[in-house]
Amino acid sequence: MSQLTIQDTVTLINGVSMPRLGIGVFQVEEGRDLVEALKAAVRHGYRSIDTAAIYQNETSVGQGIREALAESGLKREDLFITSKVWNSDLGYEATLAAYEASLKRLGLDYLDLYLIHWPVQGKYKEAWRALETLYKNGRVLAIGVSNFQVHHLQDLMRNAETKPAINQVELHPRLTQEELRAFCKEQGIQVEAWSPLMQGQLLDQPDLKAIAEKHGKSVAQVILRWDLQHGIVTIPKSIREPRIVENASVYDFELSPEEMKAIDALNENRRVGPDPDHFDF
């Protein structure tokens, strides 16, 4: 595994290749800082960018993509772009319209991956039907969900024609999501981690610091390596170039089975984000 690079991909259930490591832009405002961060990310080998309609930064993400492509000589198809439909747009026609609105803001002809952002009861099935239509019509390369628990996935798949390719969930050493990961693996659904560094809350954790010191790495690098060795796609957020570079420097070391187990054992089922069974937005 240590021979892999940031260009390494996982093959989704429908045969589409997705980079295992990407950059997330949650809580990053529109503007030049975001554009420059994405240009830096592409320059340093990142090929996957994750945004969402609710982040209200798709316009700057699109600008960053255009400038990064011009600077690098890469083509649009060399990048993997994800966005998500927000709760207020869940519904067949509303979701189709939301997709077109995201594309317009991004300045793109298609997305590589489009996700339902949250499992709003009574709404996500109609939204999924819209995603299936987009997928069947070749408007998006892969479709998936975000923040879905096992029971949400089971409910969705009862009527779905297309199985979700991705389930993007909060996942880090304090929330290892083992039951959900096992279910997704059994179903061929790729798990993707948001907030993999627990919004910085794990950077002083003693066990992680000890493992990091042993490898001459940062705690963030150890956590991202743990993700990758578990087969989890991960999208750490940063707009600072040194941190963007650091987050990608995880391919020159390998965690031992004992270290992997020690990190697994840090689980407390503790979230920094909302609980998918109890959210009110």
What does this structure look like?
The chain is of the alpha/beta class and 281 residues long. The chain has one domain: NADP-dependent oxidoreductase domain (TIM Barrel), CATH 3.20.20. The protein is 40% helix and 15% strand. The protein is built from ten helices and ten strands. It has helices at residues 32-43, 58-72, 92-106, 124-136, 150-159, 178-187, 206-215, 219-229, 241-248, 257-264; strands spanning 9-11, 17-19, 23-24, 48-50, 80-85, 111-116, 140-146, 166-170, 190-194, 233-234. The protein has an eight-stranded parallel β-sheet with strand order 3-4-5-6-7-8-9-10. The longest helix is centred in the first third of the chain and has 15 residues, at 58-72. The chain is globular. It starts with 8 loop residues before the first strand and ends in a 17-residue tail after the last helix. The model has no long low-confidence stretch (mean pLDDT 97). Pfam families: Aldo_ket_red (PF00248). Residues 21-268 form the NADP-dependent oxidoreductase domain.
